[in-house]
Write a structure and sequence with these properties.
Order of helices and strands: HHHHHEEEH
Distance between the termini: 13 Å
Number of strands: 3
Strand content: 5-15%
Radius of gyration: 20 Å
Number of helices: 6
Structural class: mainly alpha
Largest sheet: 3 strands, antiparallel
Helix content: 55-70%
């Protein structure tokens, strides 16, 4: 079986690619394109929550392995959350967690992984302050089935799930409207 995605350029109709652009469709924001591009990361975040919970359920005899798996799964989770947040914002919506997702993603991906030895990076220092991290620690993160704690910041997995449901509704509405307007064709 093969799969495909077709997204029309602004101003055209997906069912008639040779049709001239209408002013109605030319003037529209690109939310339907952004929503379509966000979906893989929305689904990815949902998958990462499942994988994260599996990692937190490893036996107590495997604490180090569990911590390393949790770090990896949470890193990927916040990468996906950050991507979803960026697309949600570009579609004109905001959420109180957007900057937090961004800071956590950058802390795990950059401060801990890629630039762990760059102690003079001002962005890293500012991010550490926003996350309430002890300046003497390279990383301060803990994991349990229902929360991820970074410094003094506690992120509930249930809050992430609520956020993903909220973002999903936004994208569903945008895509439904775009399909009605002939901007997207689903097969």
């Amino acid at each position: 079986m093969s799969y495909f995605i077709k997204i029309i350029q602004p101003g055209f109709d997906v069912s008639g690619l040779d049709k001239k652009p209408s002013s109605k469709k030319t003037d529209r924001k690109l939310s339907h394109i952004l929503s379509t591009l966000a979906l893989p990361y929305l689904y990815g975040a949902k998958t990462q929550i499942v994988r994260y919970k599996m990692a937190t359920s490893l036996p107590a005899s495997q604490k180090i392995l569990a911590a390393m798996q949790c770090l990896h799964e949470s890193s990927t989770l916040f990468e996906d959350l950050n991507t979803v947040a960026r697309y949600v914002k570009k579609c004109g919506y905001s959420h109180e967690s957007h900057e937090l997702w961004y800071d956590i993603r950058n802390h795990i991906r950059h401060d801990v992984r890629e630039e762990f030895d760059n102690q003079h990076d001002e962005r890293k220092k500012q991010r550490a302050k926003r996350l309430n991290l002890d300046q003497k620690l390279q990383i301060d993160i803990s994991f349990s089935n229902d929360v991820i704690r970074i410094g003094n910041i506690i992120v509930k997995i249930s809050d992430i799930e609520i956020y993903l449901a909220w973002a999903s509704k936004i994208f569903e509405k945008i895509l439904s409207d775009a399909q009605k307007d002939g901007l997207i064709k689903k097969d």
